[in-house]
């Protein structure tokens, strides 16, 4: 995973609540067997509307998505995270994220930042007033900075450390081999097996 | 202090606990399908890793499979390539697979329980959010992303953040014609699509205890639609009776040991939930959705709500957007909404009791002119059972299409889709924009409401059919 320390870029205001992962990447894109090439599928249905915010020239190249509450609900598809990253987003800010989406994002180095709804709206207003305004998402200091905005955000220390270091979860877990083997040795025999010995 | 059911199952799976770190949990059962696994197997291959426990892993094909002409090569080359990738990966890594055409093939959340693999007190994961279904057995079951699929394949464990607990207590009797689907839709409308965020829900109370295993699966299945980490129901005699004799259920002394353990899996009397919701079963009615998220629902007898009635600005805006997308106007009676398509199936309502329920309403009646009705069994086993009971004949005699098992129109990945502007009554779980096909409009309903809607051509319950004569004797 790519490490995340701090990022500064322009932002896109997405004023919709309950943006589900079917909107982020529709199901027909899920037939692909790679982790890349999803950028054209990002918000595919909404992008057919020329007025949709991502279609506006002023927001081209923006890297921070500032979204409404309950972002990433629904399907567990990690493709939603890949699509956002493939398109160029480095961070998403919202007042609430669905659990599975949040987990997926942090495992891929896409920083999902939870801020109070009024701060999210303030950031959206800034980007609407001037799309050239830059936002800094600083994971080291756990702060979001923009003109007139300095907001602290929380992220559990373990997740933060993994992101800052760009650590691979599987390698970390494999260090626990003896604990896993010990647990396996004591599992009751009535537990189900998919293959009958 | 006592512990809740969820806390007990969690504690029994902790491989390693350390201050400031997420608990590392052992995973008892890992279910795989074609859509969320290819990148995970690729990751293993690149790192030179193996599947740690092939004996706790099983795969099936469901999301992408056609429901017609399954003996012919799959027409869409991209779909075909994805299924072939799963077959190649399972062969290379030694994972048991039930491919299209196999008697155990079906929707992953229907297959696990019917094989007896889903058991009380187990941890169950799958790269699919509806893994919450398995919580009906008192399992801690949740959907994961592809990175976590790879993690479980490699280590049979997952590091997991702590959760909160919420009791959803439903007391009393569900009125006639009110099903598990109506119950869960009403719960989601009550607590909202984000109401369960961070929580494991435990459904309890006399109304829940009276539900069959299949009805319990319907309830737990849609826990994710309330944003929950998982949903659970304490195992009881109904659970044990369902499991006994199934292919992978314990036998002999193991069965006795298992049941003795399973009986301990109840929330202690002095346990405290972080949140509680109480619902009176008697107040429930057939429930349908009008909007574009599963929380936007109302009793069938109600009208499309007026967005202006919402105090919260973002809810108001969401309701406006939903009515615009759905082509509905505030105040319109839900019963007057006409549909083009009716879909019966999915991991929510694709089991045998669901098909019986829909067939009992359709028997001797006909699907309305201009309405297309698809019946897609949740698994090949469910299909065989339905054929054995003659349900397929009831559906086809009524003018419905009897299809092969799979996820089908629930998510519109295979050719079973709505055309732009088409409207469905669907027994599935998500009414998101474009979920069942680009521009398609979805109303979530129970199997009974789906069948009655098919007959009348507009949203309806079986009680509305009293004027529609039954044209053939029962037992066709």
Automatic annotation (TrEMBL), chain A:
Pathway: Amino-acid biosynthesis; L-leucine biosynthesis; L-leucine from 3-methyl-2-oxobutanoate: step 2/4. InterPro entries: 3-IsopropMal_deHydase_ssu (IPR004431), Aconitase/3IPM_dehydase_swvl (IPR015928), AconitaseA/IPMdHydase_ssu_swvl (IPR000573), IPMI_Swivel (IPR033940), LeuD (IPR050075). Keywords: Amino-acid biosynthesis, Branched-chain amino acid biosynthesis, Leucine biosynthesis, Lyase. SUPFAM superfamilies: LeuD/IlvD-like (SSF52016). The keyword Manganese does not apply. It comes from the Bacteria. It catalyses: (2R,3S)-3-isopropylmalate = (2S)-2-isopropylmalate. Residues 1-118 form the Aconitase A/isopropylmalate dehydratase small subunit swivel domain. One of its GO terms (molecular function) is 3-isopropylmalate dehydratase activity. It holds the Pfam family Aconitase_C. Catalyzes the isomerization between 2-isopropylmalate and 3-isopropylmalate, via the formation of 2-isopropylmaleate. Belongs to the LeuD family. LeuD type 1 subfamily. Heterodimer of LeuC and LeuD. This is 3-isopropylmalate dehydratase small subunit. The lineage of its organism: Bacteria, Bacillati, Actinomycetota, Actinomycetes, Kitasatosporales. The gene is leuD.
TrEMBL record, chain B:
It catalyses: (2R,3S)-3-isopropylmalate = (2S)-2-isopropylmalate. Pathway: Amino-acid biosynthesis; L-leucine biosynthesis; L-leucine from 3-methyl-2-oxobutanoate: step 2/4. Residues 418-442 are annotated as: Disordered. Its cofactor is [4Fe-4S] cluster. It comes from the Bacteria. The keyword DNA repair does not apply. Pfam families: Aconitase. Residues 7-457 form the Aconitase/3-isopropylmalate dehydratase large subunit alpha/beta/alpha domain. Keywords: 4Fe-4S, Amino-acid biosynthesis, Branched-chain amino acid biosynthesis, Iron, Iron-sulfur, Leucine biosynthesis, Lyase, Metal-binding. GO terms for molecular function: 3-isopropylmalate dehydratase activity. Its EC number is 4.2.1.33. Binds 1 [4Fe-4S] cluster per subunit. HAMAP family: LeuC_type1 (MF_01026). PANTHER family: 3-ISOPROPYLMALATE DEHYDRATASE, HOMOACONITASE, MITOCHONDRIAL-RELATED. Catalyzes the isomerization between 2-isopropylmalate and 3-isopropylmalate, via the formation of 2-isopropylmaleate. Belongs to the aconitase/IPM isomerase family. LeuC type 1 subfamily. This is 3-isopropylmalate dehydratase large subunit. It comes from Streptomyces catenulae.
């Amino acid at each position: 995973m790519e490490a995340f320390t701090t990022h500064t870029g322009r932002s896109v205001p997405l004023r919709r609540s309950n943006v589900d992962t079917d909107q982020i990447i529709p199901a027909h894109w899920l037939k692909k067997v790679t982790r890349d090439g999803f950028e054209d599928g990002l918000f595919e249905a909404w992008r057919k509307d020329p007025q949709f915010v991502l279609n506006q020239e002023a927001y081209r190249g923006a890297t921070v998505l500032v979204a409404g509450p309950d972002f990433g609900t629904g399907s567990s598809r990690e493709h939603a995270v890949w699509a956002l990253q493939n398109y160029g987003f480095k961070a998403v800010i919202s007042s609430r994220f669905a659990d599975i989406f949040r987990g997926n994002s942090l495992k891929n180095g896409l920083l999902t930042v939870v801020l109070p709804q009024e701060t999210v709206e303030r950031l959206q207003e800034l980007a609407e007033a001037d799309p050239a305004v830059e936002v800094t998402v600083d994971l080291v200091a756990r702060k979001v900075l923009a003109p007139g905005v300095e907001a602290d955000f929380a992220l559990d220390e373990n997740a933060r450390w993994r992101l800052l270091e760009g650590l691979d979860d599987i390698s970390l877990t494999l260090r626990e081999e003896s604990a896993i083997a010990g647990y396996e040795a004591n599992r009751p025999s009535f537990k189900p097996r998919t293959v009958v010995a | 202090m006592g512990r809740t059911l969820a806390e007990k199952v969690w504690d029994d799976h902790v491989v390693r606990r350390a201050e400031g770190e997420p608990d590392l949990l052992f995973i008892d059962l890992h279910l795989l399908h074609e859509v969320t696994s290819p990148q995970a197997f690729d990751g293993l291959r690149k790192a030179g890793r193996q599947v740690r426990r092939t004996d706790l892993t099983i795969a099936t094909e469901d999301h992408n499979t056609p429901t017609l002409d399954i003996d012919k090569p799959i027409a869409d080359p991209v779909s075909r390539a994805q299924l072939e990738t799963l077959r190649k990966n399972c062969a290379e890594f030694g994972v048991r697979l039930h491919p299209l055409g196999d008697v155990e093939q079906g929707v992953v959340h229907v297959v696990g329980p019917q094989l007896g693999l889903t058991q009380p007190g187990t941890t169950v994961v799958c790269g699919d959010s509806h893994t919450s279904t398995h919580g009906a057995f008192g399992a801690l079951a949740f959907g994961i992303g592809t990175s976590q699929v790879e993690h479980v394949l490699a280590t049979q464990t997952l590091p997991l953040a702590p959760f909160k607990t919420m009791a959803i207590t439903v007391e009393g009797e569900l009125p006639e014609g009110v099903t598990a689907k109506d119950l869960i839709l009403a719960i989601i409308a009550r607590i909202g699509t984000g109401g369960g965020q961070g929580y494991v829900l435990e459904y309890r109370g006399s109304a829940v205890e009276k539900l069959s295993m299949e009805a319990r699966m319907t309830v737990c299945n849609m826990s994710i639609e309330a944003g929950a980490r998982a949903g659970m129901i304490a195992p009881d005699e109904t659970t044990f009776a369902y499991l006994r004799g199934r292919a992978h259920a314990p036998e002999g002394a193991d069965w006795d040991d298992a049941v003795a353990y399973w009986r301990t899996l109840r929330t202690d009397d002095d346990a405290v939930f972080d949140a509680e919701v109480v619902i009176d079963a008697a107040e429930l009615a057939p429930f349908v959705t009008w909007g574009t998220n599963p929380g936007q629902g109302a009793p069938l007898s109600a009208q499309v709500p007026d967005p202006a009635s919402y105090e919260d600005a973002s809810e108001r805006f969401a309701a406006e957007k939903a009515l615009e997308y759905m082509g509905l106007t505030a105040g319109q009676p839900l019963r007057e909404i006409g549909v083009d398509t009716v879909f019966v199936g999915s991991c929510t309502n694709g089991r045998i009791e669901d098909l019986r329920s829909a067939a009992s309403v359709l028997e001797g009646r006909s699907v309305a002119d201009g309405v297309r009705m698809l019946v897609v069994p949740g698994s090949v086993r469910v299909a065989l059972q339905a054929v054995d009971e003659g349900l397929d004949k009831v559906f086809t005699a009524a003018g419905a299409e009897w299809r092969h098992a799979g996820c089908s129109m629930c998510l519109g990945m295979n050719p079973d889709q709505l055309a732009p502007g088409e409207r469905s009554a669907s027994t599935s779980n998500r009414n998101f924009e474009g979920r069942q096909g680009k521009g398609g409009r979805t109303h979530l309903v129970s199997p009974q409401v789906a069948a009655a809607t098919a007959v009348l051509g507009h949203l309806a319950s079986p009680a509305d059919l009293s004027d529609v004569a039954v044209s053939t004797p029962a037992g066709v």
